[in-house]
Amino acid sequence: MKKKKIDNFISLPCLANARLKNDDQNIIHRDCFVVDDFLKEYGKNKKYFIRTFGCQANVRDSEIVAGLFDKMNMTQTEKMDDADIIVINTCAVRENAVDKMFGEIGQCKSYRQKKCQVCAIIGCVCEQPSNVDKILNTYPHVNLILGTHELPYFCDNLSSLLKNGYKRLVNVKSQGGSVFENFPSHRQNKYKAFVNIMYGCNKFCTYCIVPFTRGRERSRLMKDIINECNELVLQGYQEITLLGQNVNAYGKDLNDGSTFAKLLEQIANLNIPRLRFTTSHPFDFSDDIIDVIAKYPNIMKSIHLPVQSGNDQILRLMGRRYNSQSYRDLVDKMRRKIPGLTLSTDIIVGFPNETEEQFEDTLKMVDYVKYESAFTFIYSPRCGTPAAKLIDNVSDEIKHERFNRLVKCLEKHISNYANSMVGNVFNVLVDGPSKNNPLMFSGYTEENKLVHFPSKNLSLIGKIIKVKIISSHTYSLIGEIYE
Ligand code: SAH
Ligand code: SF4
Ligand code: F3S
Is the shortest distance between the CB of 203 and ligand 2 below 6 Å? Predict the structure, then answer.
């Protein structure tokens, strides 16, 4: 008789537990990434497809999952309908990210009925109870749901699902999290790399779901990060971006004297041509960090410094721990000490009950700082966060109108800056043929500006070359190879 397939719900998400520290928070787990013989055999001649939503932390996690699939002898495919295993790595930061993800899950339903044996949902959405409920109730073709803390045990869960023939396996441990080392990795880019320096976030900005989905702040040891960066340098990588939700707070949990400034300096000394980091919280941006950035030419002078709002009351309600004056003071100090500094930011429009005057303070901040680039968002209530409990009296129409005004205001400064680059020569790290025009190549300047230039020379990919800017659009530049 055929055995009836059953669900195995090992654990479900719980937002209250996600806030708590766990006992092994400061223990470093090494070599947890086990790929058993069963999976190595199973993977032969099979293909995997990974779709990644969200921030660089998710991009990096997907590279780790891809590394595990490689160890299972699987190959990567760019086509969802060609995959034996589909993984969707999800982001919960705003509702539109979640909606896109649900659209994508719907799309893989027909593939599950044919070739695909596993449809796995991983990442931040899985840490939210309401979303896991929705997946379980609406998408029966999803048969593996893993929380962010289960990533190191991805293969154990996959093996258990396949060996036992479960209908569905759900394993979401909501907790503070730990640090894992020695993971396999299939990096998507051969000359630009992301390196995690810490995980999680302790800031608990009142609108933000990230501390719940990613757990508490926990830093990797300096020696482990430096070893990883050193290997990348030896492999010929041209650019490293250090990752953390709040990189300036690096080391605070280690109690061994490690700080972000010390880490940055040691990595800059490895002679990587371009060193970047993201994201910086204005609260923890200490003088020693500014000094190290100013001192090393290979630390890029384009810094992401999310402001969120220019109004003191809104900043207080957001729990951001700075006010508009202290933010301006920090910007002034950074501009004084770091020649050639360019700043980018994140701004949220329509925080509950934001008034016209409060919104105008944000425009004033934009006009003061003159950001060279920015990400703008309409506030999206996140279930379980304190801000989601606030009753909002601002209509969607007003929020959209303010959003458009904000974008216009930002674009004025972004265009001015792009215009000021015309006629000058910049170092560009070449990515290769641009997506929309095969006659043009594209790449990024040190200031993180996208440049298109005519070329067919594939040997330039991954090299830093000089490009003279001949014209500018708001979000990109046109140039020609200078030498
Ligand atoms: N740790 C980083 C990035 C966090 S998420 C930081 O602190 O800057 C990236 C951006 O998403 C945030 O900076 C914020 O602007 C935006 N964001 C986060 N939660 C949001 C929400 N509930 N609604 C709208 N935007 C949000
Ligand atoms: Fe979210 Fe604030 Fe942490 Fe950034 S610092 S991840 S916005 S809680
Ligand atoms: Fe999204 Fe999670 Fe990153 S919620 S922004 S993928 S940490």
Answer: yes
